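Its record is retained below.
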Amino acid sequence: PAGYGNLSVSPAVEPAGGPPASGGAQRDVTTMQDFYGEVIDQLVRAGTLTARMHVLVLCGGKEDRTVLYRKGFRHVVISNVDPRPDGATFAPFTWCYQDAEHLTYEDETFDFCVVHNGLHHCHSPHRALLEMYRVSRTGLVLFEPYDNLLTRLGVRLNIGQEYEHASVVCNDLGYGGVANSAIPNYVYRWTERDVVKAINCYAPQTPSDVRFIHKMRVPWVQLRHRRNRLLYLVIRFAQPLLRLIEVAAPKQCNSFAAVVMKPDLPRALHPWLRQDGKALRLNEQWLAARFRRRPPTAAHRDARGQTHDVGRAALGWRRQHTDATPGR
């Protein structure tokens, strides 16, 4: 569905007067939920996501529970590698202990997958993304930090974090780092091409279907926890400029959402492929119209012969060990 790139979202910045003396942490959470909820609303309006779907949340937490419950979702599994939750923590949703990089579910178990600022806590964010793609039937949405000139400058000026110390501090120095450990994770910031290339490598049979939404999300939580308050004050007064960047140059925002849809097979197949029953095969006519086939060389013939010999030897071994009649 069209329209993702033009999604209108409220700026992730504080009012000009700043937060009240108390309740600042709650305001941070609400700001994060606003973008999350607005993207979910957009997907629902487009018909991409419905409240009846069976949804898996990776690297999940109470924020996921709050947003999805408010949006009317009820068939949700919230997963993470946190040993502390129990069955009631995310009620009425189900909780399951799952490593995002090694999900135990079968292919296409869920209709849709969601991850909100969790992939950069994985040892391999790309692997976790592809696990989401594997277990979903329809598609997935991810929210992650974005890599661009402005975010790299922010890290250089010590506004953003290269390693996520604040998350560990906010979790009593025991959790919140890589794989939810006490070791601060490296903040992997994605580009649009990173997402597209990862999907194309995993599923090369069709073009990837990915849409992006960009958002400026100021890291108020970690700025408030710093002993030096100067950065916090500077960013507060820079909010009008941040709003302007979000409108005029959205690809310089520091956060984004990516909506990845699964292909409609066989309609979406590349022209050099065709579907034969449940199997995918080369479209030899398409290839023959573009390439001349080279006659096999001696090396190729030898290689094929060796392969056949190995195959025959393996087949003979299997027959011997299954009491097959010798010589057949």
